[in-house]
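2024-03-11 09:14:02 INFO queue: dequeued item Metalloregulator ArsR/SmtB family transcription factor, len=112
2024-03-11 09:14:02 INFO validating residues
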Amino acid sequence: MPDPLDTVFAALADPTRRAILIMLLEDDMAVTDVAEPFEMSLAAVSKHLAILTRAGLISQERRGRVKWCKLEPDAMRDASVWMQSFGQFEAVNLDAFERFLEAELGEKDEPA
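2024-03-11 09:14:37 INFO prediction written
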């Protein structure tokens, strides 16, 4: 069975999944709304959501006919503790983490 920490870091390694987490910082979202800004199929987005769910970073629930996604920020606690062990990093502040991810994603979107 894979180490939960490995699973979290593997999930965070993909820019699409990090973008999804940023979107879910605002509020719960329907899967179709999560998929809307991405230029990929709903099936491809669903695979990303499955990886995030397995890592415990999000949860999914069906409300009527619609499947909803919810951020589970406590899942990053072990990753934060691991990073703190190096003494160079502070505890992951989700607001700071969001700003970091936005900066990282923004730099990649800018033309070279």
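2024-03-11 09:14:37 INFO annotate: Helices lie at 4-12, 15-26, 31-35, 42-54, 77-84, 94-109.
2024-03-11 09:14:38 INFO item closed
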